[in-house]
Model the fold of this input.
Amino acid sequence: MNLSDDSLLAGMAMGDAAAAADFVRRYQSRVYALALAIVRSSAVAEEVAQEAFLRIWRNAAAYDARRGKVATWVLAITRNLAIDALRLRGEQPIDPHVLMGTLLSREEGELRRPQPADSEPLRSALRALPPEQGRLIVLSVFYGLTAKEAADMEGIPLGTAKTRIRRGIAKLREALGVER
Amino acid sequence: MTDGLQCTEARELFPELAAGVAAGDERARALGHLSGCRECRLELAATAEVVDELLLLVPEHDPPAGFESSVLARLTPAAPRRRPRLRLLWAVSIVAVAALTASAVWSRTADDRGLASNYRHILAVAHGQGLSTAPLRFAGGAETGTVFVYQGSPSWIYVTFRPAVPQGDYDVRLLTRDGRRLALRSFTARPGGAAWGSTIQVPIQQIQKLEFVRSKVPIMTASFG
Done:
């Protein structure tokens, strides 16, 4: 019987080692992949991913199911740690084109797993965005840049950057069918 | 909120807010607006959903060999593995009590019959024989959490704390009606809310008191009848 993410997390909150093992097994490919996509170094990505699971283990009791899915909570923790790792090493974000290429790729590499079909509408919408909008969204969502930092990197006014991000997000939202 | 200008200004910040990168002052202004504007809260939630979905878009990639064992060694250096059957019951039980906790909160304004029905359902799901609760209080009497005890296989005790719990490490002990004092797993209170739980080896009717202790002094106590 496969326990739900919430159940495994509850088990972790109680110090259940077996629940932790199941949880790590279930999420390690996603956590490592996100860390790798951001830091672009397998050694650093591995360290970030390990730290992410440690953080999840310690904070499992604080997870609130009403505020979002387990997967997004887990990946948000991973993203934040990856951004911290980049900043700690004094590195500017890698060219957002590289990460955009990873997001848009439909090819399955040697170590990559098949991608779920339900991600395709969002991927198509991202692909259809004007490149200048897509880059800014990647810089903000994945690399944690403020609109000001992203505007400086792109060499454009702050207002222009904000407008592009907002319009880009609106198009993605439309593609996802997200309603208020 | 009906002030269109304020909503317009706030919504310009939502992409950054949803991505967690808004500057401190802008974040504060946006949150100030959100506290009084349901429409904008819904709008922000919709934007945040897009951001969440973007993170899920990264294709899975297997980590290097040995990753899983390295992680588990860091997570649980000394924790014994439980038997699968026990683990399943444990997980189901915890989910059940979490559901009951939520139900108890919501029930402050709900129909009591609905809560009773929910209670019966939870016991049925968890194959339990009984569930009891008691308030957890500071020495001065102020309530700081709720204790749930569950009679089943295994039996367990679970505590949800209010945010005001002083941070730090606590020893936890259970006092039984026949005078025994049982040490349970310790508890570390951290910022952002907390919960704690443990399996117990005594019938729940035998529980007289649960204590969270620091420097041998009970800081929080729950009494059962």
